[in-house]
Amino acid sequence: ISDQKPLGCWSVKHGQILTCPVVCNFETHEYIAVHDDKVLRIWKNEDINLDKAFKATLSADVYRIHSLPHGGPVVLFRGGGVRTLDVLLEAPQQEIENVVSDEVIRWSGACMEGQQPVLIFTTEKDGAFFVYIQKPKLSSLHKYKLEQQESAKPLCFTAHVTNQTVTLLCLCSNDSVYQVLIPLQEDTEEEGEEEEILFKSLVLNLSVSGTVLKGTSLVVLDKDHIAVLGSLAAPGKEPRECLTIWNTKFQTMQTSKELPLGTSGQLWCYEEKFFLIHGKVLTVIMYKCETSSLAAAVGKLKDSQTSDVSSFVNWNTLEDEELVVSFQSRESVALKAESRMNLRSRRSTVAEGQPETLSVGQLLLNLKDASTYVLEAELRQLMAKAPTPDLQATIGCVVTALTDRCKRNPKYYPQNFLLQIVETRNLSYSLCPDLMAVALEKKDMHLLQICLEQFPDIPEEITYACLKTFLSISEAHLQNIDVDLDSVICYIDVECDNKEFKTEIVENGFSAEMDQNMCDTKIPKESQSRSYGESCPVGLQKAALLNAVLHSAYTETFLLPHLKNLPAQQAILFLRYLYYLYVKCSEKVNTTLPGIRSPTINQIMDWMCLLLDAHFTVMVMLPEAKELLSNLHKFVRAQVRFYSELNKIEGSLQELQRLNHLRESQTYSIEVLEII
């Protein structure tokens, strides 16, 4: 997420507008969207064209679709009517009742109570707020009126269901959070019955020592903790946007994280992760809440006075009760790592003689100034003992500790240790974002190659930096570097001096004698004996490194601006290598190169197109690129002609296949088929 790598993208036609957030159906793994208020679209991840996806036009405007893990999607209409998706799809044009009359829906949420989905939404009319609770499968509807206070106008809501009771929390304009408890009722409200008035009870004042939080969004973490996104306004200071965690039981702010780039004012929470827009990126922050206690709350307040705060803020409580909230200092995906700030009571001093089990964070802090031998020995031991659920996060912290040591001490670089970790552990770029930057600085080609092949989320900027480094490094220097050659050794023939044999190539649909007049470019005599497509323009080691770049995932929109900065001579060399691979693939009937992790024809073609898009004008102007572009043009043109001829006889070949199926296996016959 931090590297902005979209896995799928779908768009509606020009003039159409998506009118409510898209959701995922957990049961069918389908996406559900509504455009132009009434048009429902349903599609799967493998579907490419949204216009060809399932379409249903509904009879009323949709406000929101809520998807529940075990309850299925529930559709809320602007008029207050509610339907489960299954019921709606049985008759998309069914009449939808108008429940809210002149009221406007301000918020909606969905929860599960047992096996039944419960939909809660609030409306507003002339400054008055109303609460509706529906059980769509039971056709149960109840309406309530919220207690009206001029000084405390609701700004946003959140709700959850526990023990047949809906707990509705509302963030109000007087910088306070209020709570409303609503027992779930089974019977349907009778027409004409007066609305029950719901009274709010104060849960929390969002102020600490004169500093007031102007909240814009809140989410519930557990029964004792909430998270509020908003602006902290201290007297005489500029307001600053922050994400804050509050203990509702003890009325304390546990921690806050400043967001200097600004937010959209929205905060989401799912599976112990915060999601929020920070600047122009979507930021994800992991957290963990455990049992609350007064010692944790007071301890944190004391700790907030200190100036040296760890990258991960945590609270330890007495007798192993913890509340841990982890914030990473980077703007990337936060890691679950703990650095403990131990609070000891008089009772716990009795156990001083017993060995203390340190958390990962505290251990890494203790090893910050340890010797190289002690550091690596402790880290190896830590990885060996790492618990299974937190294994990936622990290894990420280990790699981060090593790269931090490399930054502080330029002479320190544990190449073998890092290689061992990357090769044997299923890591990602997000878990150790500084690793590849350090490897680039140290020009560790082997480690960069392994990272490119294994990391699924490398930013395009880093991919480009690797490509530029690989193309710029000399062949002589690469001869002395250990590089994995599995991806090239099966299709590049080498002599003892590592120079490639000139091989004779007969491409699918193309030969050197074929269609010589397709291009007016004359090939110089000295180059006729060694065509670009016949011999590899780079050595084995460089070819293996470039193959690793071809395997790296990328998004064209983000890679193209970086690729335009590639020097012209390096771009030509890379294009020559891609052309060589293209010709090699065309030798094979299945267009597949032999070997382990060899590039595919699609990867080769995609990178050729990218490179030409980025440098076409420059290459047209450069004399040294003229022959390469001419050969590439002739080869592609011959390929198009060849496949065009194949398409002409496709029908006849299919007829032959059909006749083979119809023919009896034991009957001997001679047949003459005329192909027109």
Which descriptors would you attach to this protein?
five-stranded antiparallel beta sheet, 30% helix, five-stranded mixed beta sheet, 17 helices, globular, 676 residues, alpha+beta
Descriptive report:
The protein has 676 residues and is α+β, with helices and mostly antiparallel strands. Helices cover 30% and strands 25% of the residues. The strands form 7 sheets. Strands 8-9-10-11-15 form a 5-stranded mixed sheet, with no helix packed on it. It has a 5-stranded antiparallel sheet with strand order 17-18-19-20-21. Strands 1-2-3-4 form a 4-stranded antiparallel sheet, with no helix packed on it. Helix 14 crosses helix 15. The longest helix is centred in the last third of the chain and has 23 residues, at 626-648. Residues 300-357 and 494-530 have low confidence and may be disordered.
Task: Give the helix/strand layout.
Layout: E1 18-25, E2 30-35, E3 39-44, E4 54-57, E5 62-68, E6 72-77, E7 82-84, H1 85-90, E8 104-113, E9 116-125, E10 128-135, E11 140-146, E12 154-162, E13 165-172, E14 176-183, E15 196-198, E16 201-205, E17 207-208, E18 211-222, E19 225-233, E20 240-247, E21 252-258, E22 263-269, E23 273-278, E24 281-286, H2 294-303, E25 314-316, E26 322-324, H3 360-366, H4 372-385, H5 391-408, H6 415-424, H7 435-442, H8 445-454, H9 460-472, H10 475-479, H11 525-528, H12 540-551, H13 556-563, H14 568-587, H15 601-621, H16 626-648, H17 650-662
Parallel strand pairs: 11-15
Antiparallel strand pairs: 1-2, 2-3, 3-4, 5-6, 6-7, 8-9, 9-10, 10-11, 12-13, 13-14, 14-16, 17-18, 18-19, 19-20, 20-21, 22-23, 23-24, 25-26
Helix pairs in contact: 4-5, 6-8, 8-12, 9-12, 9-13, 13-15, 14-15
